[in-house]
Each structure stands twice: as structure tokens, then as C-alpha cells.
Amino acid sequence: MQTTVIVNPKSGKLSGAHSWAAIEPRLREAIGPFDAALTQATGGATALAREALRRGAERVVAVGGDGTLSEVVNGFFDGRAAINPATVFSFLMCGTGNDFQKTLGRPASLDESLNALRQPREKLIDVGRLTYVGHDGLPREQHFLNIASCGMGGAVDRCVNAIPLRGLWGGKASFLAATLIALLVFRNKRVRLVIDDQPPRETRVRVAVVANGRFAGGGMMFAPHAELDDGLFDIVLLENVSRIQAVRHMPKIYAGRHLELDQVVHLRGRRVEATSDEEVLLDIDGEAPGRLPATFEIVPQALRIQY
Which of 11, 104, 119, 146 is most buried when burial is the number of CB atoms within 10 A of its CB? Predict the structure, then answer.
């Protein structure tokens, strides 16, 4: 199988004994020969993946965190069209949160992940498509693999990226610290949501999650019922939640038991339009590239993965 491996050398855990130089021979032993390309800047993984598909790559493997995986998946598409639907996407997660693999039940350790790639499972999954406004005020469109949200998630992303040596903290500790910091400054935002053909929903949210996968934020199970291949988003709204309530209920979010709370609404749909009169940041697979207004659309059975 003609394989290209795209590596983000700045991912949270790609250092020391787990540097790319140490991982590369082990990955070759696990999946066979491949061409490797290292990213140089944010967004570079998308261009590298698109180039690999146009050269005829049969498999593209992302090495990095959730953001790297998302960038690589965006390279599978030229605008809204898949470049080659037969090309397989695979991954070795070495980032801070590593949330995408949790939904698939992929082992967390490097040794177990490499072992899984020797005889991988394969399936077709959905991806999300998101149109939104970039920080420069211009319209943007991209795909997302795991979870996108509006509200506090974008503030948390900024805090995580500002943590020094966050790879040494571990994903859960990094995101927990960033969440607690963001809680001090973030206030609930009023948003207007239209889900499929349902009447508009006006609400004030701490976060509105549009989920393809189940986990985000270093292990928070925001969408415990989400499935990657059911053709639907799980939409989870934390409405009118105070700072104190958010801290008190955080263990329930990690355990996926927050849906039982009165302030949490769980919905499902294929398309979500979100607008606001306030500035509301977006979180897209662990990155914060823009703000509302935004439209989230499910693209069913759009990506063939090995895991």
C-alpha cells in the first residue's frame, strides 16, 4: 500500500524518548514502508495530505494530536469534494488531548497503538463540515473529524496553547487547568440555534457542542451517545450554567453523566446553524480558528479509516 506519513513534530508528546526519530523505525516495522513529511507551520498538514492524495497515496497516516488529525483529514477534500474516497486515513496520536481515538477504543499508550496498527480494523465514518467567520472577518470552510463547539471551548483552546511545556503535564491535566482558567473570565453567551428544520432555539450557553465523536478537552465525555458512522451529530448544550455549577459538575462531564442535569440539553441532527449578536469563539477539533456565525453539516460515510 502506497503510504504517506504526515508528522507534526511540535505535537505535545513528540519529544525525548517519544521523538519522531525514535518512533519512525517502530512505525515502519508496524505498517511497512512509507514516505514521511514533517509539517512546518499551522495548516501545513492539510497541504501535505492533499498533495499526497493527488500523487496517488492509498493511505495517509497522521502523527500528532487532534488538531493534526483534523488538518490531515481536511487534505482529503478539495473544497466540498473528496479527492479520492478510496484512500485510507490512519493515525498515531502523540498530542496533548488525544481525544479522537477514545471514541474508537484505541489504546492510549504508544506501544499499544503501534501494535494495533499491525492488524488494524477498518470502517467508514462521517465527518463534519463547518462554515464560519475567521478571526480576520473573512468566511472560512473546513471539515472536522471529532467535535466542534461554540462558547467556552475556544477560550480553553487558547489557554491550553499558552501552557508552557504542556506535553509534560499530560492531556487531562492540561485541559483541566485551561478549563479552570477560562472559567474565571468567560461568561455565558446568548446564541440562536436552528437544527435541521426545527424552530429556532434562543438560549444562553456556556458551551454548545456539535459532536461526531464522544470526547474532547482531554477526556471529557461531552457526547456519550455519539457514533462516528450514524449520519447524525449529537448536539449537547450546557445552558445557563454558572461558574460554580460548572466546577461542581465537571466530574459528571468526564464520566458522561452530565446529560441527566437540568441545565444540559441533548439533541440530534444533520445540520446546525448558530448565530449570535456577541462574539462567540469556535473550537474545532481542539483549535480556535474563528467565531460565529457558523453552520455545521454532517457528511455521512465520507472517510475510510484504519485504527
Answer: 146
Sign of CA dihedral 161, 166, 171, 176: negative
Strands 59-64 and 88-93: parallel
Task: Answer whether residue 186 shows pLDDT above 90.
Answer: no
> Around 223, how many Cα atoms within 13 Å sit in the side-chain half-sphere?
30
Closest residue by Cα to residue 216 from 171, 261, 271, 280: 171
Task: Answer yes or no: is pLDDT of 154 > 90.
Answer: no
Helix axes 171-185, 152-162, angle to 10 degrees: 120
Name the strand (E) or helix (H) holding 28: helix 20-31
Q: What are phi and psi of 100, to 5 degrees?
A: -60, -45
Enumerate domains of the chain plus CATH numbers. Answer: 3-126 (3.40.50.10330), 128-301 (2.60.200.40)
Residue that the C-alpha cell 507551520 belongs to: 41
Query: If you search the block for the grid coordinates 460565529, which residue do you land on?
Result: 292
User: Is it true that the peptide bond before 224 is cis, omega within 30 degrees of 0?
Assistant: no
Q: What is the pLDDT of residues 55-69, one digit of tens each?
A: 999 999 999 999 999
